[in-house]
Every structure is written in C-alpha cells, then in structure tokens.
Amino acid sequence: MKLITKKNALLVCLTVGHFLFAQIDKNATKETKNLYQNLKIISKNHILFGHQHALEYGHGWSNEPNRSDVKSVTGSHPAVVGIDFSDFSGRSKEQIEKTKEVLRKNVIDTYERGGITTVSWHFNNPASDGGFYWKDGISTASMSLIKPGGSNNEQYKEILKTIADFAHSVKAKDGKLSPMIFRPFHEFDGDWFWWGKSHTSREDFIAVWQFTISYLRDTLGVHNFIYAFSPDNRFNSESEYLERYPGDEFVDILGMDDYADFGRDGKYDLEAGLKKLKIFSDLAVKRKKVAAFTETGLESIPNENWWTEVLLKTLKSENLQLAYVLVWRNDTTSPTHYYAPFPEQISETDFIKFYNDPFTLFEKDLKDIYSKKFKI
C-alpha cells in the first residue's frame, strides 16, 4: 500500500486480494463485492464524505444537471450521494414510475462518474395513514402486520417487488448494475417513525428485517445491494447497540445516525458522540463488517468551524474505522434547513479545509472504486 499525504497527489493502489470481509450476499455482483471490500479498506486511513439528495436539489435550486451544493463549493460532488425510496409506495402508479425514472438517472450517473449511492427509506405506513412518521390516533403499529404471516405481508411483498424492479433497472452504459447501499428502517431505536422501538417489539423488528433482506436477495434476485443497519444514538454500550440486531448474516454495514451529540439545538456532547462511534466501529472490526457514520450534521451550520473543529476532529479520534460520513439534505426553499455549505455560507471556508484534508475523500478522489484495484 502506497500513501502520499498531499491531497491532490494522493495515489493509493489497494489490492483487495485476500482481504475478505463478511458480505451477506454471496451472489452479489462483482462490482458490489468490490465496492464492499474497498469501503472496508478505505475506512482504515480515510473517510468518504456524503450528502443526502445532493444531486436532486440544493439551497435555492432543483433538477439541474450535474449540480450539487458541495460541487459548487469544492469543485467535486460528494463521494457518497443519498437518495430515498419514500415515493416507492403510498403513491399513484404514475408518481412511482416518475420517481423511478428520476432516481434511476441519479444512480446510474453517480456510478458512471465513479461515486457511490446510499438509499434511505422513509417508508410510508402500508397499513394506515400518517406517512412514515408516527402520528398518535392515526398511525398503526404495522411491523407485526407486514412480517411473514401478518395481514399485510402480501402487500409488503408487492412494495419490495417495486424496490427490486428498480434495483434491476439501474444498468449503466458498461452493462453493469449500479451498486447501492440500502439502509431500511433507520433510527429504529427512536419513536418518531412507525417502525420505532415503542411501536414495535424486538422480535417483530428482527423478523421484518430478516424477511426484507431474504426476500429481496433470495426470492427477487437483487444482488447489487449492500445492507446497512443504523439506529439513532440511543445506546451507550455494545449490548445496547445490538439489542435489535438481526444477525451478522443479515447486515453488511454497522452505522449510526447522530445529530444530538454534534450540535443540534446548540448542544454538543462530542465525548458521548465519539464513544458511540467507537462502539460500533470496534464492533465492525471484530465482526469483519464495514462501519459508517450513516447520518449526522448541524442544521444551518451556524458554527463556522464545525467541519474541522467538530466533525473532522472527532472522525480522526480513537482509531475509528468509518467508511463514510453523510450529512443531511439542503432544502430547496427553506432559508434554514440545510446541512452542507453552499457558496457564501458561513462555514464555506472551513468546509474547503475539510475537503483539502488528506483524510477526507470526495468523488474526484475516487477512481475505479468498483474494481479490485482502485486509485484514490
């Protein structure tokens, strides 16, 4: 392994070779397998930067080709681009197809540029109104209903078929399917989603998780997904992190969503945040899995040095091995709901320092991430 510390001259040739990690789909496509192995290797010395909905819209704009707020600031798209399957159910057939068309182009374009797609799923409740949030008096505790044997299991299968059809459709010009990191039922230890802890037993959560992966992979033949498990930050030990863990054979990436410890409402507890990152980073090493900081960020980024003094400093601590960190979206119309800088935003200068640090990797730093040998 050759490492050159200067960012713009960084050339790293990493041969996967004998480095084998516990990916759950033995029939995954070659590109998906290579991506998984390379994520693990990257996590040893670097971290990829990600941004949710980066290419679909940003602060004051939407649907502009090859644009992202991150690119406007740094000249590069984020290495990891977040999309969402929220409109794949609970919508008209026409709207679902329109969403598929938009996201298909997004995923393929990202793959062809050499970037990575991660998919969250704000899953509209299939058994009641209320959308993906839990709404008292409206929402139904539906995990028990969509598991095998439940009254809505057949309906759930149809929703999974929609996801599988999309997974089979993201074929690039090279004839290969674009790999995706799929992150269902995130923040399950909270109570704001209908699949949350107070609405779902441990047994039902695990049953639905295991069925979801098995049905997509083994029945519907989806072999370009990497599966990520991401509670919120409501754990303080390895045993608490694993309380609803469905098993090593059903998880590829161990993650966490944590806004609260990193400045939400002006409150910081970086020591607690680092402790939690360390718990599942070490767990991933032990279990030969990949770890990632699957969601974080500071809304409006009022701290002009947040990127280097808060986020980067934490990520470089305690020998963490995290493949990527993803911050949340930049709303099109809201003057305050954004998590990545745009030109003239107060943290722009610090974000450029974050970008130029050799530890962080953006899309321009990646080459052949889907092959056994790749250059950074």
TrEMBL record:
Its main location: secreted. The keyword Signal applies. The active site is at E187 (proton donor), E295 (nucleophile). Keywords: Carbohydrate metabolism, Glycosidase, Hydrolase, Secreted, Signal. Residues 1-22 form the signal peptide. Its EC number is 3.2.1.78. One of its GO terms (molecular function) is hydrolase activity. The keyword DNA-binding does not apply. It catalyses: Random hydrolysis of (1->4)-beta-D-mannosidic linkages in mannans, galactomannans and glucomannans. It is found in: Secreted. Residues 30-364 form the GH26 domain. Belongs to the glycosyl hydrolase 26 family. PANTHER family: GH26 DOMAIN-CONTAINING PROTEIN-RELATED, MANNAN ENDO-1,4-BETA-MANNOSIDASE E-RELATED. This is Mannan endo-1,4-beta-mannosidase.
